[in-house]
Amino acid sequence: VSSACFALKNYTYEEKNLRALRRFDEVTSLLEDASKYSAKAEIRVEAEEIRERLRLQGEEDDMLEQIAYSSLLDAMDQPQMTVDQAVENIRDVLKQYEWSEKLICYGIGSVLSLSRQSPEYLTRITQFDVLKTIVHTMYKQQANANIQERGCETLKFLAQQGNRPRTMICDVDGSSILIAALRHHKDNESVRGPAVGALE
Which one of 33, 34, 129, 164 is most buried, by most CB atoms within 10 A? Predict the structure, then answer.
């Protein structure tokens, strides 16, 4: 236990590592037990220190998510925002908040919603590197069914809009990520259905 706490203490000096640990509820439970019940005072102190780092990171991430979420809402709802500004806004959130499932899912969903609104949005989305960003995010989050579902739904819709969007999807290696989604989530119809539809 002492070695584990020491390793976790060093590991959690980096923000990205704190975010990775926060995905596992078991870590929090184990640290809580160690901080309360370990026979060694040193382990109790280290475990509590790590718990505090995780708590503070959680509070900071919640605040960042709220700010970015408001930004995405602006992209969807603000009439004074140009099409280019709205699309760039969504793209930037997807790039900057890869650690947030909530923002990724909402951001990809925003791309789908805007694409359905008008041909102008559809044209801008395929001109900017939004498609590339979506595919890149899906590659990095292959195990996350919710992100794969949103990504496959969006790629399916775009693929059905004509030759240019289909070509753009192929150019950013979208076919490969759709096949990967089928492989990783073959028993999940919410992923499998749109993935197959996008590949047809």
Answer: 34
Which phi-psi region, left, alpha or beta, contains residue 188 (left: φ > 0; alpha: ψ -120 to 50)?
A: beta
Tens-digit pLDDT profile for residues 66-115: 999 998 888 877 777 888 888 889 999 999 999 999 999 999 999 999 89
Segment holding 176, helix H or strand E: helix 174-184
Between CA 195 and CA 89 the distance in angstroms is 26
> Which pTM was predicted?
0.83
Alpha-carbon torsion (55, 58, 62, 68), positive or negative: positive
Q: What is the DSSP string of 6-22?
A: HHHHHHTTSHHHHHHHH
Whole-angstrom distance, CA of residue 54 vs CA of residue 21: 8
